[in-house]
Amino acid sequence: MKSQITNQFVFLFRPIFRRRRGSLIAGLSIVGAFYTICIFADFLAPYDYREQSLGEPMAPPSSIHFRDLDGRWRTRPFIHPQQLIDPLERRYQENRQLSYPLEFFARGYRYKIFGLTADRHLFGVVKIAGEERPRVHFLGTDDLGRDRFSRLLQASRFSLLVGPLSTLMAVVIGILIGCFAGYGRGRIDTVLMRITDTMMALPTLVLILAARAAFPLELPPWRAALLLITIFVALGWAEMARLTRGLVMELRERDFVLAAVSLGLSPAHILWRHILPNARRPLTVNALLMLPAFLLAETALSFFGIGVQEPEASWGKLLSAASEITLLERYPLILIAPAFAIIFFIFGIRMLSIGLDQEQFKDKETATFHRPQLASRE
Amino acid sequence: MSKLIFKLILSRIAQGILVLLILSILIFGLLAAAGGDAVNAIDGSPHISEETARELRRVYGLDQPFAIRYARWLGEIARGRLGYSISYQTPVGAILRPCLINTAVLAALAMAIAWATALTLGTAAAARAGTWIDHLCSLIVIMASSTPRLVLALLTLVMITYIPYGNTPAGRFLQLMLPTLILSVPLTAILLAQMRGRVKEVYDEEFVRAARAKGTSERSILFHHVLRPSLNPLITISGYSLGGLIGGSVIVERVFSWPGLGHLCVTAVQSRDVPLLMGIVLVTATAVLAGNLLADILLRLNDPRLR
Prior knowledge:
Structural class of chain B: mainly alpha
Strand content of chain A: 5-15%
Shape of chain B: flat
Oligomer: heterodimer
Order of helices and strands of chain A: HHHEEEEEEHHHHHHHHHHH
Radius of gyration of chain A: 26 Å
């Protein structure tokens, strides 16, 4: 009964989309686009995400102009510098007298990409000799004057590394334990399944918070990331173990496995070469269903201020930096940008899992063994 | 049948106690292994001298070894108390009770919203497959399942600034409804997708065909033959998602300043208040285990085949 329920979880979204290629391609291109942006984050970002500009805290997004004051079109878009007129309320005014054109491939801070050092960035303000050029902020700045747009790019890097990495590790451990339980059966199976029952029923986010409480709040970024990954893996392997165990139990009764056993092959070889390849698709789909949960747990922890620490950026930190009600009233874009990054990425992952799930329908054998009644009716 | 359910309840209670015991040792051990305690949280303050810190540790028994601290805590639990919160200077039970009620209200309403949507919209979509209502259902599922609660809650905060939102009856109603609505969103997506798929499946069953052959009206088929067997996955998933619902309430409560367990939990983590944190973990885990048991009983009441 219980393994059947887990399977239904996997097939949650099956009835929704029928065009298989469409959702697979849409999902792949969305996720691919996100990772391409992450690789080239330094190039796309105009400024270093840690660089503070104390003269312009909480600056509003710069408006890009294409026509000057007389209404004539310019060849290059330009910005007016923003001046802090009320430091207490952090009100800014554009200085219309001055205008600075923008350019592509502007020089900026130095960064490393593919082992090479570069200092070109996609866009920036043209440098005029002897003058200090103002900064251009697509999404404004935070309270330390750091460019929100650059921080968003860097945050995507962190969030898109921690979430998937912890999913991957939880999946590997879950599959190993599931194989032990499903192939070994007997007492190991009973004990393991009791444990997974417990793990799956518990309020995960509360446990993550409790586990996080055990460690000091201030940790260097890479150790914080490592700690988050460990906590997620410790709490997330159960679901995968449950699914794997069900699949292994069903597959080990099949004729080709019996044939392999009668040939005298070792259990490890049988699991690796004969059973797991047949369980590949449902396992992948389930991993993709788990990914958003991990990603969001990281976001939530950082939002509460107990995930990654300053000056590093993650999606959760950006959301919390943007949730200041007086600022939001005037410039909702600073919240909407990270919010939509999260929504869009999860949407991509969902499409990918729907697409992959429907791929396995084509594969008659997998579909039949999974849901006999359903497959026979189609 | 009642005997079977009684047996189920007994075995689950025994299992549950074991689970809670293991969980408490795990969390307690983890907190002890990592070092740092409630006094550490105020250590940086210049007003607290080394001697005061040592004295505080002695008063709260924080200088004792792990086994003794755990045994003391367990003794308190055995006497029906949850211990004494260090940061609030009050018994943990007294802090927890109002918060627990607040969270229970939030979670129960969210569950009700999810069920109501799944029952009405999910059934309608399956009964009228391929029409606009079916497509609307698909759209809601994919949108709701890819919008995290945190993001939704923050976006709602932005929208609230445009709505007059005072201490009027309408304002208070909105204050209650917005957090519950947001809390229910992911659950609604799951239940809706399940209900729609399941009702469609049941429509294909032979007993439905037999009922049609008898000349039963479509209305009667839906209410007497299709609906009841379709409820099984909904009940099971509701039981399993209780943990997620309480976890989600951490986020919603934080954003909307709702004085519930989730809010308290974040505070307890930040001040490293071990007794309070253990109390919260214990209470939520018990609630989730009880919810699972309730779901299993309901499942057996609904489906005679499982008895």
